[in-house]
Write a structure and sequence with these properties.
Elements (H helix, E strand, L loop, with lengths): L1 H19 L13 H25 L6 H12 L7 H22 L3 H6 L7 H29 L5 H11 L7 H20 L6 E5 L8 E4 L2 H10 L1 H24 L6 H36 L3 H28 L4 H25 L4 H16 L3 H31 L3 H29 L10 H9 L6 H16 L4 H10 L1 H21 L4 H29 L1
Antiparallel strand pairs: 1-2
Helix pairs in contact: 1-12, 2-3, 2-4, 2-16, 2-21, 3-4, 3-7, 3-21, 4-15, 4-16, 6-12, 6-13, 6-15, 6-16, 7-15, 7-21, 8-21, 9-20, 9-21, 10-11, 10-19, 10-20, 11-13, 11-18, 11-19, 12-13, 13-14, 13-15, 14-15, 14-17, 15-16
């Protein structure tokens, strides 16, 4: 079986991905050099392993983009004839495994948490993660033009990686970036490693009608607000206010909710619904636009599009066959999983672009529930498809951040696609191996290794907490999108609540005030400091993960 897998994987890489994304002969050499691949794979192995550990232990996954950018620069900047594009491709490959690890860590342990006797084969998890990596890379390569070039979404993580890269070219900017990066990293170390600074500050402890008001003490959250700007931050905050401080107390006052717990269930379901409603609207709009544009395209472009369509179809068919042959999923379930991944990766890519947040396990849950409603999916199969979708969504966020930094640097996106494909597949192998090793060493779901996201997936495996609220949310998200309002950011605020929202809003407010006082001339310094704050916490998070993993 393993030999067959090797043949299949070799075939898909050679005949599909390299066909789809083959670089035409130009005067410029490919930025994805042999040394970029070697350096990228070495860094990938360390970051994937540590990300799996920290994701299961802490229920968190710091974005590695800036950390791997700094690491790639450190290794390659003194190499002969190295370029920013080569460094960009190296960190693109290096970061991919982290998100694959997150997708597995946030889903599969839930099966064992429900019952330690529940089994899922190593091959099934490996195949689901590899298919997720393939689909995440494929779909984001299709969505890149719309989200990066046409919509020009901020992608705060990708923007921070770009600013870090540019310090190599503009030495004068480096003090602003690296001083804020160092300060943020030191702050994070004191907070998370030495536990001398509280992670959460509670302003209001809550009452019988109003939930508690707390916020995350985080340089990263502040910088995300600074980067995404006041509009998206405002709608994010409005979503929080609507869900927590209008909907909840009103429902409790009118006795619609029997308790704060039932209010929480309603609020979470409506938040999820808003994000999914946005996704439905996006898909309908995309189909309409594709049909309309096709009528106005030249025969030459139609021919190119047809070739891409055929190649994409081959990848999809190959993925369906892999899932059907090597996992517990039936053919119909495999088809629905791939369709769900296509929608979920778009939502994940868009939300990451708008907010810097990528709730990959949420989209996995929603696809799981949708497939389960149609096919009455078994327990093991359910977690298999959830892991596949979560990996695809996790990788899509990473891919789009890399595309953002690459577009600003001027890197050929085809080089980056190949880097993500390589990193995703190798990351899937490493992440699967580390997860099964951890299962042997630890009791997943215990206080030592709580795996909180996976527990959430386990709790939702039986169905939605509040279907009515979910459908209301779908309608709200759909209508908001039609009116060109940032519905996904609004839905995220409803779902997440104050915890991160207040910190993000505070960051946006601080920058808005500074610009009002100092003018737009401060734009560059603000951008560099924001990138440094974001990157510092991300770097410290990855480094703490290394230390924690090796210290046990």
């Amino acid at each position: 079986m393993i030999i067959k897998l090797k043949v299949y994987f070799s075939t898909i890489i050679k005949t599909v991905f390299l066909t789809q994304f083959k670089i035409m002969e130009t005067k410029n050499k490919s930025a994805l050099t042999t040394r970029a691949v070697i350096v990228g794979v070495i860094g990938l192995a360390l970051i994937t392993a540590s990300s799996m550990y920290v994701a299961v232990k802490m229920g968190a996954l710091p974005w590695p983009a800036v950390f791997v950018t700094v690491l790639s620069m450190t290794v390659l900047k003194r190499a002969k004839n190295s370029t920013l594009e080569e460094i960009n491709c190296t960190h693109t490959l290096m970061s991919a495994g982290s998100m694959v690890a997150g997708g597995l860590a946030f889903t599969v342990p839930g099966l064992w948490i429900m019952n330690q006797a529940n089994s899922i084969s190593f091959i099934a998890v490996l195949v689901s993660s590899i298919v997720g990596a393939l689909l995440g890379t494929l779909f984001t390569s299709i969505y890149r033009t719309q989200l990066i070039e046409k919509d020009n979404l901020p992608y705060p993580i990708g923007e921070a990686a770009y600013k870090t890269l540019m310090t190599e070219k503009e030495k004068k900017s480096s003090p602003w970036l690296f001083s804020s990066l160092g300060g943020s990293a030191l702050f994070t170390f004191i907070r998370d490693f030495f536990h001398k600074i509280p992670s959460v500050v509670t302003i209001f402890k809550g009452s019988s009608l109003f939930p508690a008001l707390s916020f995350y003490v985080s340089p990263m959250a502040l910088s995300i607000g600074a980067i995404i700007g006041p509009t998206l931050s405002l709608f994010w905050t409005l979503g929080m206010v609507f869900g927590y401080y209008i909907l909840t107390p009103l429902g409790l006052k009118l006795n619609y909710f029997s308790s704060m717990e039932s209010a929480q269930s309603f609020r979470s379901s409506i938040g999820l619904g808003i994000m999914i409603g946005t996704g439905f609207a996006v898909v309908i709009k995309a189909i309409y636009s594709a049909i309309k544009n096709r009528k106005n395209t030249t025969n030459e472009k139609k021919e190119r599009d047809n070739k891409k369509l055929i190649t994409s179809a081959l990848i999809v068919v190959f993925s369906i066959l892999l899932l059907t042959i090597f996992t517990e999923l039936t053919l119909i379930e495999s088809i629905l999983t791939v369709i769900g991944a296509a929608v979920a990766t778009y939502l994940s890519s868009m939300l990451t672009g708008q907010t810097g947040i990528n709730p990959m396990e949420v989209f996995a849950i929603l696809v799981l529930l949708a497939v389960h409603a149609i096919c009455s999916t078994g327990l093991t199969a359910a977690f298999t498809l959830a892991s596949c979708v979560a990996v695809a969504c996790g990788l899509s966020g990473d891919v789009m951040n890399d595309f953002k930094s690459g577009s600003l640097v001027g890197t050929n996106p085809k080089d980056q696609v190949k880097a993500e494909a390589i990193g995703g597949i190798i990351g899937a192998i490493i992440a699967t191996a580390v997860l099964f090793l951890m299962k042997k060493v630890f009791v997943l779901g215990s206080p030592e290794m709580p795996a909180p996201q996976a527990q959430a997936v386990a709790s939702m495996a039986g169905g939605l907490d509040n279907p009515l609220a979910f459908y209301i949310g779908v309608a709200i998200g759909f209508v908001m999108f039609l009116f060109a309002l940032p519905s996904s950011a609004f839905g995220l605020g409803v779902y997440l609540g104050p915890y991160i929202t207040i910190s993000v809003a505070l960051g946006a407010l601080i920058v808005w005030i500074i610009k009002k006082i100092k003018g737009e001339k401060t734009e560059e310094k603000i951008s560099l400091v924001s990138a440094g704050l974001l990157g510092g916490e991300g770097c410290a998070g990855v480094f703490i993960a290394f230390i924690t993993m090796f210290m046990g």
